[in-house]
Specification:
Elements (H helix, E strand, L loop, with lengths): L16 E9 L2 E9 L4 H5 L4 E6 L3 H12 L4 E4 L8 H4 L11 H4 L5 H6 L9 H14 L6 E2 L4 E7 L4 E6 L4 E9 L21 E4 L14 E5 L3 H10 L5 E6 L6 E2 L7 H9 L1 H10 L18 H13 L4 H4 L9 H18 L3 H7 L13 E2 L2 H4 L5 E5 L5 E4 L3 E4 L3 E3 L2 E4 L8 H4 L2 E3 L6 H4 L18 E3 L10 H22 L4 E3 L1 H15 L33 H13 L5 E3 L1
Parallel strand pairs: 3-4, 3-8, 4-5, 6-19, 8-20, 9-18, 10-11, 10-18, 11-14, 12-13
Antiparallel strand pairs: 1-2, 6-7, 7-8, 15-16, 16-17, 21-22
Helix pairs in contact: 2-17, 17-19
The protein binds 3-acetylpyridine adenine dinucleotide.
3-acetylpyridine adenine dinucleotide binds next to helix 7.
Length: 577
């Protein structure tokens, strides 16, 4: 397995072991030594079989398992799929890839792996990322602690034993001192509510639940519903072979070129030599991407300079056009109109039919106020004779028929329907599990007016539960946030272990302070004026029709500073007993 040693201890090795804990102190990371005591005996008597249960074996679940083993925790991971990878296991739709530069996306904690692994493209496609995560699972021999095809139905807190009872859909029950959710932020796919979906006689797929078997579009009549990041990636791929592709677009999104490319062996060698610098940069930027905003405001420079800068961003790889643009682009309306005008001009240049171009230009929101899908010849697809764009706002889909789709003004026949209709984002995956805290309170009840948390990771009345990508964690280039959150939780658990603490709960007051901060950060953002998953809206889900402050909108360094401050103050705001 590529000549790399597994971590210090497996979960079966219950001896005390010397570990190194990255304890966060104000001003940075400090390394301290701790002695991890096995946490078993009194618990075993109380019927607690595990020190920790982790829900999900995506990137966060895998890394958490590695860290828990280092602590000597007996851990069980429950994963609904048949393999590891989470997002990269479920999203196998054609053209699926991430929009972060590959070398900024992988795990940074294993320097040997960084030297061994080669990314083949600047933005790796899904199969490569899935392969990479399987390699991580192999290298650390993680599968022996993961139970696959194990979907968690409920998790109930037991005060008397200070433990969680986790029930799987098969009815089996498992008991654990700590519970860690690694269930993702965009992992609960949602279907539209059109009548007739089940009557369709052809093939149909949701992008987020794509089958492992190859779906052949060649010569087929295909519908794609939805034009978010998943839809855009699917459309540009399906358009290559389908006999006919009809795109049902309800709201156009502002897309910009990805400029992907192969990574040569020489380039990869050069990237390897710069990993420290790459990850340091990710740590410093607003959302952990390699791009930093221009230090000037849009109108601080001349019109000619502005145009030249925007042209440069448009010709460069990745998210620079979104997160490396003028610093006031997402807060100043006139600035936002200026960049929107620029992108609209590009769309008009790239799409030959002016009517279609106008349909593709968003009119109800400015550039960057929703997630910007990055694309590869997406707009050019609409110049192809086999591709048609339908405005689903003007002529809504009325129903799915056995042979296709009926809109308010036409009926279409299809062999394949692709639902690129997105996710019940952020808290959707939590809503699908019956979480119950102290006195049987449900998480749904507590979150009915919007999720709350302490740094996105803890919730009062849910002791000993940690949410790795819970609401209000920094997202952006997600693996960077995952690594931080896993390490923060692991440090807290090491601290609890050292002090013999068996109950950890966020205090309401600390949560209130954090939530006030989250609310304040969202003020003045143009994105708060727009419906999207980022503002908690999903028209297919009841109760999610209105915009709310659904996520943390501040910087990743700001997020980390807040969380580090809690740790540095001996976990101030968290009750421990
Ligand atoms: O989902 P979305 P997604 N009738 O919610 C439409 C990440 N991601 O899966 O906008 C008609 O963005 C809906 O229309 P509207 C990334 O963070 C990353 O594409 O609501 N249309 C919209 O067009 C991303 O933001 C990557 O009017 C309906 C679409 O479906 C997030 O996941 C790749 C409809 C849903 O778009 C989610 O992206 C993919 C209906 N009833 C995803 N219901 C990369 O890193 C929904 N729609 C590259």
């Amino acid at each position: 397995m590529m000549g790399v040693e597994p971590p210090v201890s497996g979960t079966d090795d219950r001896k005390s072991l010397s570990i190194t804990v990255q304890a966060r102190k104000a001003g940075g990371l400090v390394t301290m030594s701790a002695v991890a005591e096995p946490m078993t005996s009194p618990k075993m008597a109380a019927g607690i079989t595990y020190d920790a249960i982790v829900i999900g074996a995506g990137m966060s679940g895998l890394y958490q398992l590695i860290r828990l083993r280092e602590l000597g925790f007996k851990t069980r991971v429950f994963e609904a799929g048949t393999g590891v990878g989470g997002t990269w296991y479920w999203n196998r739709y054609p053209g699926c890839r991430f929009d972060s530069e590959s070398y900024s996306y992988g795990f940074s904690f294993d320097k040997d792996l960084l030297q061994e692994w080669s990314w083949t493209e600047h933005f790796a496609p899904q199969p490569e990322t899935e392969k990479y995560l399987n390699l991580v699972a192999d290298k650390y021999d993680l599968r022996r602690d993961i139970q696959f095809q194990a979907r968690v139905a409920s998790a109930h807190w037991q005060e008397t034993t200070r433990s969680w009872t986790v029930t799987l859909e098969d009815g089996s029950q498992h008991h654990s001192r700590f519970l860690i959710t690694a269930i993702g932020a965009l992992s609960a796919p949602t279907m539209p509510t059109f009548p007739g979906i089940k009557d369709f006689k052809g093939q149909s797929f949701h992008t987020g639940l794509w089958p492992k078997e190859k779906v052949d579009f060649a010569g087929k009549r295909v519908a794609v519903i939805g034009t978010g990041a998943s839809g855009v990636q699917t459309i540009q791929e399906v358009a290559k072979t389908a006999a006919q592709l009809v795109v049902f677009q309800r709201t156009p999104n502002w897309c910009a070129p990805l400029h992907n490319g192969k990574i040569s062996a020489a380039e990869m060698a050069e990237i390897r030599s710069r990993y420290d610098e790459i990850f340091k940069r990710c740590e410093e930027t607003f959302s952990c991407f390699l791009h930093t905003p221009h230090p000037q405001n849009t109108f601080d420079v001349s019109a000619a300079e502005r145009e030249a800068f925007l042209e440069k961003l448009y010709s460069e790889r990745g998210f620079g056009i979104w997160v490396g643009n003028f610093q006031d682009m997402l807060t100043n309306r006139a600035a936002n109109e200026e960049i929107s005008r620029f992108i609209a001009k590009k769309i008009r240049q790239r799409v030959k039919d002016p009517k279609v171009a106008e349909m593709l230009i968003p009119k109800n929101h400015g550039f960057g106020t929703r997630r910007v899908p990055l694309e590869t010849f997406y707009y050019e697809c609409y110049n192809q004779p086999n591709v048609t764009l339908v405005d689903s706002k003007a002529t809504p889909i009325e129903r799915i028929t056995p042979t296709g789709i009926k809109t308010s003004d036409a009926e279409y026949e299809f062999d394949i329907i692709v639902y690129a209709t997105g996710f019940d984002a952020l808290r959707g995956a939590f809503d699908r599990i019956d979480f119950r805290g102290t006195d049987g309170v449900t998480l749904k009840e507590i979150w009915q007016d919007g999720a709350t948390s302490l740094v996105g990771m803890l919730q009062s009345r849910f002791p000993n539960m940690f949410m790795l990508l819970g609401p209000h964690t920094a997202l952006g280039n997600i693996p960077r946030s995952i690594e931080f959150n896993v390490e923060w939780v692991s440090d807290l658990l090491a601290y609890a272990q050292q002090k013999g603490i068996t109950r950890v709960e966020a205090q309401q007051e600390a949560m209130d302070r954090w939530m006030e901060h989250v609310m304040d950060l969202a003020k003045g953002l143009l994105s708060m004026e727009v419906d999207s998953w980022m503002t908690g809206v999903n028209l297919n889900v009841s109760g999610k029709q209105k915009r709310i402050v659904a996520r943390y909108t501040g910087s990743a360094p700001g997020y980390r500073a807040w969380a580090n401050d809690i740790a540095a103050k001996d976990y101030a705001g968290i009750s421990m007993a």
